[in-house]
Amino acid sequence: MHISRIDLNLFVVLECIYAQESITRAAQQLNLSQSAVSHALNRLRELLGDPLFERHGHSMVPTPFTRSIIARVRDGLRTFERTLHETSQFDVESTVKRFTLGVRDSFESIVLPPVMHYVAEHAPSIDVATVQHDRHSLEADLLSGALDVAIDVLLPIPQAVRSAPLASERFVVLCRRDHPRIGRRVDLDAYLAEEHVLVTSRRRGHGVEDMELVKLGARRRVRLRCMHYFAACRVVSETDLLLTMPQRYARLLTDLLGNRVLDCPFDASSDAYLYWHANSDADPANAWFRQRVMAAFDGPARARSGMG
């Protein structure tokens, strides 16, 4: 099939139905009538010889064929769009755009206030959304545009993904102010004698602090395993449990909940990195957003590619 026979707008419709999981919502997103979107879908079904989507309840579920081509369709649309606009400059004061940032709990409260403060003053038509990303699909999400950038710890990444160091966060220990056994300091023996909260998005496995303890031949009792530091800090404020977490976020939550912050009795830290796809290197909008995120972590970071 020659490309001259195909209206490329049909693939815009395909991608939008896939993203919205609905013909009605796709029509609203594209500012088209529902019948126009249905007609475009039927034309593409005839051209490709596949149903493309099947209706299940209120959702349009993609067929295996659609799932197999959607990443390449999205990449092609993005490449075509960049080609059309590669000579244009990103004007922060007039550009209408939404940036999507993949971020974990402990980084979100650090990056959003300074980014949104700048956006509110200098970028009236820029919107920002944060989502919790899946590390296993990071490359695909950055390539497809589902994410513009992501913040995470040091990850093994392919050459197509770029990274830049943002910050190194030393860990501290939190306890409630009237803890009966912990004073102004906590040594390793006192630390190990207490029960602990571990914050992790994983269902099983050790935290960073536990892996550091293993190096010392030590092990702690984790009484609670939860997903978010705010919830963990609430628990600490009302129990005798200890929490080990990054210092910057700990200071912020302590201001809200009144826990005490103590030096960690062993060396534990977490490094934050910014990730984006190589095809966004030269995109002025993506570069601008990367700069804003880097500035939120107090300084520029030197980009480097593919870290194993």
Percent of sequence in beta strands: 15-25%
* Number of helices, where a helix is a run of at least 4 consecutive DSSP H or I residues: 11
The main sheet comes to: 10 strands, mixed
Low-confidence stretches: 299-308
| Helix/strand order, N-terminal first | HHHEEHEHEHEEHEHEHEHEEHE
Structural class designation: alpha/beta
Task: State the share of residues found in helices, binned by percent.
Answer: 40-55%
Radius of gyration: 24 Å
Shape: elongated
Average pLDDT over all residues: 88
The beta-strand count equals: 12
Q: State the end-to-end distance.
A: 40 Å
Write structural notes for this entry.
- This protein is α/β, with parallel strands linked by helices and 308 residues long.
- It has helices spanning 9-20, 23-30, 34-48, 64-85, 105-122, 138-144, 188-193, 208-215, 229-238, 247-257, 284-296; strands at residues 53-56, 59-62, 97-102, 126-131, 149-152, 161-175, 195-199, 221-226, 242-246, 260-263, 269-277, 304-305.
- It is elongated, with a radius of gyration of 24 Å.
